[in-house]
Amino acid sequence: MIDEEERFATELARALAEDVRAHPPGGDLVRIVVRWAEAADPLYFTVHALGEEEAQEVPADDAWYPLEWPSVDDELERTERVSEDPGVQEAGEALAAVYAESDEETVETGEWTPSEAIVEAVRLLGDALRGAGVPLAERFAASAAHFEGWGVLKVLEATADSDALHALEEQDELPHE
Q1: CB 8 within 8 A of CB 96
Q2: For 140-162, what is each residue's pLDDT tens digit?
Q3: Domains of the chain, residue spans
Q4: DSSP state of 26
Q5: How far apart are CA 15 and CA 83, in angstroms?
Q6: Which of 12, 17, 46, 136 pairs as cysteine with 121 (C-beta 3.0–4.6 A)?
Q7: CA contacts within 13 A on the Cβ side of 74
Q8: How many whole angstroms from its chain centre is CA 93?
Q9: Taking all residues of the chain, what is their mean pLDDT, rounded to a whole number?
Q10: DSSP of 98-161, one letter per residue?
Q11: pLDDT digits over 28-42, tens only?
């Protein structure tokens, strides 16, 4: 991972944790999904947080599809706040410039895989949320997905510990793709 990816990941995790603390979903945090569109465009994302209260209304099949969550409108507002964070903006623009200078093969990671910066942001989220004082549900998990919903499982397998994966499987909330 290059320095600009690490910086963007750190800023995104920090800004998202601060926003969830300031604008909490209902109840303890159950899930976060970072949706991305193009690996080469780090600022083209949405972020979604799901609390215990909303999670009760979400069928297991939709556990990783934030556009199906009852809080989707609030979460689009969250995206706006996080994406406008000065640290996220600055780090995202710097990373986009590096990606623009590199050849396409070093940026494109595959149809279902986000940039390393997004994967690292997901990896950092648990600690960032705990550091911000956000109450996490016992079955809390975070992942990233392409805007089309692809890749959630692959990112979960790369970032979550085996206990979290097992808990999701027991709740029938482990994604299939």
Answers
A1: no
A2: 999 988 877 777 888 888 888 88
A3: 3-170
A4: S
A5: 9
A6: 12
A7: 14
A8: 19
A9: 86
A10: HHHHS-HHHH---TT---HHHHHHHHHHHHHHHHTT--EEEEEEEEEEETTSTTHHHHHHHHS-
A11: 999 999 988 877 888
